[in-house]
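Narrative of activities, Objective 1.

The group set out to show that a structural description can be obtained from nothing but a protein's sequence at a throughput compatible with the screening campaign. Below is one input-output pair from the validation batch, recorded exactly as produced.
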Amino acid sequence: MVGLALALGGPAAGQPAPAPAKKAAPKTAKGAPGKAAKVDLARLVKALGGPALEEAAKAADELGASPEPAAHDALLDALAWGLPPAVAVNAIAALGQHPAPPDVVALTRYAGHHNPTVRGAAFAALAMYPDPAAHKVVIAGLHDTTGSVRGAAAAAAAKGHVREAIEPLFALLARSEEPAARALAQMADADLVRRIGDQLGKVPDPVLAQCLGLILKRADFGPDAVRVEVVRALGKIQDQAALTALSDYVDATPKNPVRPSRDEAQKMVEARLGGGAK
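Output recorded for this entry:
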């Protein structure tokens, strides 16, 4: 029987079973366990400055994903020397993945680039920097001659909570610019909501209704007493966009727990539709 057990590969009768084999530790590409593989910095730097734009853009992405300071420095160096727009956009975004104070100078330079896409990328990246100098550049971007760039600056102002941008954002709201409506809605607190509501008659009704509706969609906005103020501000707007915003709020908000803001919005919707809805 012992021979049979050995032939089948099992333990002999009365012998302890062998301990299970230990799993090998995960290895990196070079086979060293427990350590993250480093980027091939020399290869990426060469590709970043090379003539193949697609490879250069991918190299920028890889450098941005790396936490190594040398990778970040390589991006700064490349931007200082100058990159084609198709590569600069990726390099700028990559820089913002690990923000550092020296970046602001480079991004400020590219915020004045002749290519609108590059300018927009620079403003988007500047949102990651609390430096007052970065905020100043973002505010300047709200006066750019290209709409898409103004939109990027507006989004940056909202993401970076640049309060100094509120006045130029109101100026853009008066021009019916949707990015301004989105930015103000994202930044809105109780005081700003009241200012937005006071714009009735000063800015076009549709974009004002859009801004107020976006505030209602924010899960983090409150308390409900302030939501009631938003609903009442929408109730003063006769444009169809206000009815749409109120209806969307009613549809998206559960009936329970009871919210006075939802109840008031529902009454407004029913009144405008002649009592035949919801």
